[in-house]
Amino acid sequence: MDSQSQNHRIEEVIKRIAYTDPAAPAIVSSKYNPFSYSQLVWQIDHVAGVLSKSGLRRSARIAISVKDTATAALAIVAVACSASAIPLDQNLAESEIETRLKLLDVDAVCVFVGENTVTRSVAEKQGIAIIELMPQDKYELAFSMVDPKIPPKNQLDDPTLDSVAVIFQTSGTTAEPKLVPCLHSGLLATAERTRTWFNLNKHDRCLSIMPPYFSHGLTFTILAPFLSGGSVAFPASHTQVNLAEWFGELKPTWFSASPTTHLAISEMLGSTLSGLKHNLRMAVAGGAQLPESVRSSLQLSLGIPVFAEYGMTETSQISANLPAPGLYKSGTVGIPPSDTVIVAGPDGTNVPKGEKGEILVRGQNVMKGYLNGPELNQAAFSQGWFRTGDIGSFDEEGFLMIHGRIKELISRGGEKISPFEIERVLLTHPDVLEAVAFAVPHPRLGEDVGAAVVLRPGATVAAEEFRQLMSSQLSWNKVPRRVHIRESIPKGPGGKALRKKLSEVCLFMSSEEQANLSDVVLGKELLGMWRRLLQNDNLTIDDDFFECGGDSLLAIELLLEVEQLTGKTLPSSTIFETGTVRKLLKRVTATDKVQPQESVLVGSEQGKIIHFFHGDFTYGGVAVKTFSKMLGTDYLINAIPPHLPHEGKWPDSIEDMAKEKLQKILERQPNGPYVLLGHCNGALVAFEAARLLVSMGKEVKAVVMVDPIIMSVRRSAQFIFTVVDFVMRLMGVQKNKRRKPLIWIHKKLLRMDRMTKDFWRRALFFFQKTGHQKRSSGKKMKNLFSNLRHFQKFSPEWKEHKNIRQHYDNAFFDYKPLSLNVPVLYISGQFSGGAWRRIAEDTVYINISRGNHGSLRGQSYAQSVVDKIRDLINR
Fold first, then answer.
1. Residue 245 contacts by C-beta under 8 Å, 6 or more apart in sequence?
2. Rounded Cα–Cα distance for residues 510 and 520 (Å)
3. Which has the least CB within 10 A, 131, 302, 367, 528?
4. What is the Cα–Cα distance from 869 to 611, expressed in whole angstroms?
């Protein structure tokens, strides 16, 4: 492409190349026959003719939604020559497609014939014209367009140099994406810059493995080769690395990819292939910083230079390290073209070399402004310069270095820390494949430093080793208090690490902690105690108890609560020795873990088995250990937890839950007689499991139900449900909408039942006591009255698991227990159990004990349950 080509449109440059050598390959692919420049021109003219006939010309906006990468790229280029092409990401959800089509106000959507994509269905709903692309042959890339027969519009003339060729959508700070228009002139200027930088010519072939709906994929790896007279190679898959296909069969001379893809190529080269035959002369890394270890490995394995490139959707390519005789410097992104980039301070003026500031860009390759909102442009431009939002600096030789995004800087007590500094140090460790630093909330500093790493296969590194490495190369305030070892780093579609998501995921859980859900749940409860006693909801698991305002009295109070929660006796010095939730969690769970997450036996191996459906979503092991100690060596507890969402598909009914848990019983005890104990939701599952055992001909000796949460056993409640349902029917409420109000009434009746019973129980004990006991009970009565309007909400564990609670609320409402001729012991501190006599005939033993729904963890309440169990079994 000569220097004058910048004064023409994209299609004219392509046609000039085709006129010189019409048979030259423009596209090669593993799925199609070679596609020449003459065919490319035919495709451009065909699309132009169909769009013109349909009244879609210069100002028309045509969205392209095609799954096949090669076809999508060809369609985007062809449409861009006659209208504004809008590449759509095939991974977007339906709601995101709806937002984009409305925001872009598209005139038509291009889809491949026979492809039932989400975009097609959304376009049909919105009344947008559909243009179908029909293949000429299975092995031919060319396609024909079906005339959509759109009513003629007042369109302008053919595209000029300054008309919009492509509109990209890039993520923004709001729910809507930013719309980035790319002019013909800007794309030609970018192509010319790329050609000059990397000495591209007609003999070069680029392996296109970046999706064409991204700016880097389209402008850098597709348009730049086309406008330089070279060719583009499309593999069968741009996500599954196939070195033999990518570098052998397709014979590219260069490629550009994200750091993630470079890492995958490097790993495959090092583990499976050596001496790979290829025609590559260079590789380029874009989208994010490429770790030096990966770059060195690629250069050694392939024998080619790997250049760092810097750009963004709004600016295309800004700067890059160059092949000889150009300038190159490791750790930088090269020297930008003269008078196109500055590094500015907060006042907008250029900062001296070596100092950090925001990178500002200008030039023909920079967009003129976003399409959706003048307020975006006002914030994005400053005196003709585009504000990239990136932090950079120039060294003494003029090389540009990137230090991260302004929004990604960690503000630790007002001091700005670049995550890149931390990542560079972590990546020097020989066992680290990937490293990402990010901000984590801190109660006093605002933000603190966090980090996550992915290790090489088979490597094991202690987190403390990373801290020692960083301490030797970074100041103490930049060293993360914790390095999370993960199996993978969450990334966006462009390959950039999602730091915000990492911050949310790693704030509490490390990969080791995620593997043991019981530790995580116990840690959350401990953190809740920490925050409540210190009256600070912003505390994290690494904040020191005493630094945050704790004293010796609070420490003793905390220790007592921890002992009650875990059922373990801890030394009085525990809080002083641990100091943080994380350290205390390790101390508590170091030995004798008390939370069974699966069906486990607790107690003497010779004891009689009691199958305990503890029903606790958070830390049921507390009650399990308490019961085990009280029952002694005569009994053995088979602890069966409730269903949780991490187990996979969730049973929707109590009956289905019992069916799935029945195997846990039969595995431990193939033959009866059986004793089943259940608390809360577990009481209902235990009752239903007993019915299943009886139906199988098994002997069930007893069922003990502690505080089952259900109102369906009461005729009064059934009458209320029937009346309300009848009224809603008369009002014309649909069946699927009547269910939610009924479940709400079910919950309110339960809370009223608890409130009423608890009120009279407390009142009775108030009149029985005297003196100090009365004053103490008076305070409790006052607290009770203050909570009446709230109907004594469920326990804190339920609050933390709202989705679980809703699921079980539905199951409670639907459950209609059938009669069971088995001795049933009903024990409750807050619910009335008389209605269960009707369900279990005359074999129900009811004992209303002191306590509340959460008292099962307490020693006295648990002891009363154990005593009744012994009496029932002996009887």
1. 30, 235, 236
2. 9
3. 528
4. 12
Q: Is the peptide bond before 212 cis (omega within 30 degrees of 0)?
A: no
Residue 295 has pLDDT above 90, yes or no: no
Between CA 636 and CA 643, with CA 639 as vertex, the angle to 5 degrees is 165
How many angstroms separate the CA atoms of 429 and 324, rounded? 31
Handedness of CA 669, 675, 681, 684 (dihedral sign): positive
How much of the chain exceeds pLDDT 70, in percent? 72
Buried b (16+ CB within 10 A) or exposed e, 203-226: ebbbbbbbbbbbbbbbbbbbbbbb
SS3 281: coil
Count of alpha carbons within 13 angstroms of residue 691, beta-carbon side: 18
- Tell me what pLDDT residue 137 has: 84
Tens of pLDDT, residue by residue over 794-816, are 333 334 445 666 667 677 767 77
Which two tokens mark 575? Answer: 């809080």
Distance of alpha carbon 20 from alpha carbon 38, whole angstroms: 10
- pLDDT one-digit tens code per residue, 51-73: 888 888 778 999 999 989 999 99
Q: Which two tokens stand for residue 703?
A: 């069922």
Question: Token pair of 840, please?
Answer: 């279990």
Separation between Cα atoms, residue 624 and residue 856, nearest integer Å? 10
DSSP, residue by residue, 157-197? SS--TTSEEEEEEE--SSSSPEEEEEEHHHHHHHHHHHHHH
Long-range contacts of 763-767 (CB under 8 A, 24+ apart): 765/850
**Closest among 704, 700, 652 to 810, alpha carbons compared:** 652
**Higher-scoring residue by pLDDT: 488, 11:** 11
Query: Is this prediction's pTM over 0.90?
Result: no
pLDDT digits (tens, 9 = 90+) for 143-165: 998 877 665 554 445 545 568 99
Nearest to 143 by CA among 78, 54, 232: 78
- Which residues, 6+ apart, have CB-to-CB distance to 1 below 8 Å? 13, 17, 191, 192, 195, 227, 228, 229
Q: How many CB atoms lie within 10 A of CB 466?
A: 24
Instruction: Kindly calculate the radius of gyration of the chain based on its CA atoms and give it in whole angstroms.
Output: 34
Do residues 202 and 230 touch, judged by C-beta distance below 8 A?
Answer: yes
The neighbouring-strand residues paired with 105 are: none
In whole angstroms, what separates CA 232 from the centre of its chain?
34
CB 156, CB 335: distance < 8 Å: no
Helices 771-786, 735-768: crossing angle, 10 deg rounding: 160
Contact 706, 679 (CB under 8 A): yes
Q: How many CB atoms lie within 10 A of CB 458?
A: 6
For 626-731, strand residue ranges (E) read 635-640, 674-679, 700-706
Strand partners, 603: 636
Lowest mean pLDDT among 583-597, 738-752, 768-782: 768-782
For residues 124-135, give the mean pLDDT.
90
- Terminal Cα-to-Cα distance of the chain (whole angstroms): 98
The pLDDT, as a whole number, for residue 830 is 61
In tens, the pLDDT along 607-635 reads 678 888 877 664 445 566 567 667 766 77
Q: Find the length of the chain.
A: 875
Give CA–CA dist 373/322, Å, rounded. Answer: 37
Coil, strand or helix at 537: coil
Helix, strand or coil, per DSSP, at residue 242: coil
155 class by beta-carbon count within 10 Å (0-12 exposed, 13-18 middle, 19+ buried) = middle
**Could you give the CA distance from residue 603 to residue 614 in angstroms, rounded to a whole number?**
16
